[in-house]
Fold:
Amino acid sequence: MQLFERQRLIRQKRRAALQRGVVAVLDIGTSKIVCMIIRFDPSVQEDAADGTNVIAQHNRFRVIGVATTRSRGVRYGEIDAMAETERAVRTAVQAAQKMAGVVADHAFVCFSGGDPRSYGLSGETQLGAGEIENLDIAHALAACDLPSLGEGREPLHAMPVNFTVDHRSGFTDPRGQIGNKLSVDLHLLSVRSSMLANLIACMKRCDLELAGVIASSYASAVSALVEDEQELGAACVDLGAGSTAMSVFYKKHMIYADSSPLAGGLVSNDISKGLQVPLSVAERLKTLHGGVMATGVDGRDMIDIGADTGDWHHDRREISRADLIGVMRPRLEEIFEDVRERLFEANFDYLPGQRIVLTGGLSELPGIDGLATRILGQQIRLGRPMRIQGLPQAATGPGFSAAVGLILYSAHPQDECWDFDLPDAGLHGQSIKRAIRWFRENW
Amino acid sequence: MRPLGPAIRPGKRPEKPDDRAPMRRAKSWTFFPFRQSKPNTERKEPPVMSAPVPPPAAEAPDQRQGLLKKIVARLGDLKLRRRRGRTPSKDPAPSRAKYRWDRLMLRPRARKAILNGVPAVLFVLIAVAIGSNPGLRAQIGTTYQKIRDDVVSRPELFVQVIEVTGASPRVDRQIRLTSGLSLPMSSFDLDLEAFRARLEGLDAVRSASVYLRAGGVLHVHVEERVPVLLWRGPTGLEAVDIDGVRTAYVDRRSAFPGLPLIAGAGATDDIEEALHLYRQLRPIAHRIRALSRIGARRWDIVLSDGPLVKLPAEKPGRGVTRILALHSSDDIFELDLAAIDLRNPDQTIVQRRPATPETGAVYTLSGTQAEGN
Structure:
């Protein structure tokens, strides 16, 4: 099956990168590009890959270089102008390398565009006598029939999220169980191939080898959701500049991911159009004075909106903070309504946990959790990235949760444990195993 | 935030750009009837429009101008043109070459190889290129010589005069005569150390210090040797200083009338002792012709009108004391004696001057004390 061979290739690349000890992590966003250089400490032993020791694994690596630069040539989380994006990536990578003092050859990249679509697949296999082995899991995985992803799309993630043995469900690792029937639920995320191809080309132009690509919805959830939320079920909404990426976690696995182009950049756009100011001024107004709920005092809180047109009256305008909020709020409501709709489509309502975690740069807007509460439900939390070693204070804001999640993912990927030989139709090497199996069954 | 309540602001009303123009007020509720935002101090000056500066007129190609100069001129022109065409905000991104170079320099082994290897290879290449091309070598040699000659022949670096301090006029003249310098000469051609050695080779110079002073002056400071004794040696009469070193040849004693005389081989070995003896002998100084060194170990006092006094090798001062005592008590020099032998500290032997060669006799005085009694 081509999907699993691909996944395996990616795993091998990732291992090769981690072997080098130093990797770069790139979050290619619409408003900023973050590059972090991390160094892995080989002396810390890797634990059994059962996912129980996630926190303990954090002493395995350390952030030794961080650089942020204004993103260029990226629209809605996708590479729009290759040369521009390449320059921005070069700027970030060079600065981070300079801070780290070492050169990174491999890069883990996350992005939010590419129109990600989630598929829930399931495969089923009959078990022989004895315990469930790797081969049985492989058979079950191979039995998943890949849906047609559409023209020009390819899988980005394919993770087994749940195993069912006979009628008992909820296994993370069914090996060693005894039963008659094994079925697996697989979450598959597909993105546009051109997006991936562009990403690979961009990395190649920057002399970096792509060690892994993940969706930013996944990355930010890994760092912003705490373990309980991942276990009980929660949605992470990464409010970026070019796209709003959301993902749903349940039983520590991502079961749904989506991305919407309604995002913070549109808020700046609205301010720019509504107040007739340049986009940079709009961005400044949004970050410094922006808000969601207008209170009485906001009507008296006047803001200079400077401009440089030469028209005195135009350049000397003042608005109240309430005006600014009045421009921003409808767009924010629209964004959250879109999020609600998409989560509804994903049947988020049926999850036991209804927690929604807001992260991303736009979640720093004061009062945004109040607005989200009105639209998305009561259990809203503002998420910040997990603290990891060496992370500078400047990179601990919610805008960096995707980059930090990417680090966590590269140090401890969730699909690491499902790397074993896949059954090939008519494979000769299998005949001995089959013979042994036959012996076991009959004697 | 603005304080609530009416603003009581003494003094003038805030200025408006144009009183007749209608007040522009913010849409929302405002407290003050007249409002004006603070003057924007951040406002930039409007860009000054100016005609583009034409590139500097190309100079007529100078035939003497070297290729290098031409290239430098070209590059300067290029840079000027680039700066004019550049956008005001520079791209913060590194160029691809810069990016690759920085990455290369972050690899320790490559960095070491480049930082050490490239200069070494360049050095070897240049050395080989020069070594394998005799014409180039000769050219480098002549160029070097030419540059050196240019520098050497600068008038600022010429020595014009010699200035001597610490020397008597005689030694001054001697120094100038024997310096062997044909002034003016370049200070590059002047070997100061050799010059100093030559000065110190002069008899009269004890030590010399030589240095070049600004203004083309060669300053010589000498410390002269002071003659303290005359020595009649195997080569003639010499004046010697306290170290027994010759300060000058003397043709007649009257050139140094005050200096006492010593004679004999090895007499200059212990000038201090000779001077000490002379000081002791001051009461009879007028009778003394010389101190004569015998066998390079002891002294004889040669009197102008008396016997030869033989002093002991060890502690000759005691011998002098004895002879002075004999002189003052016995007028021993008035006796017709040929020699007084004081070499043995316990006895004094006098030798009478022989009347005839065969009747010479020796009297032995058994010690000065016995004699004195």
Observations:
- The first helix of chain B runs from residue 67 to 85.
